[in-house]
């Protein structure tokens, strides 16, 4: 793993909400810190209501984590495009985030309960 990336179990229970709906709650979330960026909470897929998520065509690449795939959130209030990302096959150094989802906090609410 790159020295500037740290992954640990996120303390407590975390929730993600979008468009008036609770997409999930988890006591098993991970917190990833990367350099000077704010920490990112990664939720296990099993703790997220995947019926609200629709695969997107968007992809990106991180030299430290690998190829990212995206989802849009389909809520009653409308679609929130590309609001979720995941690393389906992350690099070995960050393998813990496999089968986890992260959310853009400027588009949805991610909060510790």
* Spans where pLDDT lies below 50 across 5 or more residues: none
Helix content: under 10%
Arithmetic mean pLDDT: 95
Number of helices: 0
Roughly how many Å apart are the termini? 30 Å
Here the CATH topology equals Metal Binding Protein, Guanine Nucleotide Exchange Factor, Chain A
Largest sheet: 7 strands, antiparallel
User: What is the subunit organization of this protein?
Assistant: single chain
Instruction: Estimate the strand proportion.
Output: over 45%
How does this structure look, described?
There is one protein chain. The model has no long low-confidence stretch (mean pLDDT about 95). The protein starts with a strand and ends with a strand. It has one domain: Domain of unknown function (DUF427) (Metal Binding Protein, Guanine Nucleotide Exchange Factor, Chain A), CATH 2.170.150.40. The strands form two sheets. A seven-stranded antiparallel beta sheet has the order 1-4-5-9-8-7-6, with no helix packed on it. It is globular and about 40 Å long. The protein is mainly β and about 110 residues long. It is built from no helices and ten strands.
Summed up:
By secondary structure, this protein is mostly beta strands.
Give the helix/strand layout.
Layout: E1 5-9, E2 14-18, E3 21-26, E4 30-34, E5 40-44, E6 53-62, E7 66-75, E8 78-86, E9 100-103, E10 109-112
